[in-house]
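Hi R.,

Here's the chain you asked about this morning:
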Amino acid sequence: MYPSETAREAEVGGVGARPRPQGGFELWSWYFMRVSGVVLLFLAVFHLLWMHWVIGLSNITFDTIVERWTGPLGPFWRVYDLALLVFALTHGMNGARWVINDYVHRRGWNLTLKTALGVLYALLMLMGAYVIFTFQAPSALVTP
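And the predicted structure, written out as tokens:
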């Protein structure tokens, strides 16, 4: 082992551990990853259990989503799906930003990739939120 690797392992508490940032945006980003990971665990497990076991995998169709979003619990499901979108997309994009910081050391490329990532994040978030909030069932599917 190189002396610098041994020193880094002692500093961060083991092989592969990421040191906690000292402050600012990176510290909040570090905390967000831990909190959002726990939140996502509950959101994703509930989603998996509800959609696969309660509704049934073979019963999931467009009509299922129409009923879910337009029924009496429609506002709850829309907020739930929005929370799942926000936490999952932000968690994933923050992780990708960390990967860019870890492996792209040229300042210009680093900035270019993180800018592209930010634009992709904004585009996907806007598209997802737009669909969740403006979705209306086709008139043929609405039961009188």
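Confidence is low (pLDDT under 50) at residues 1-5.

Let me know if you need anything else.
M.
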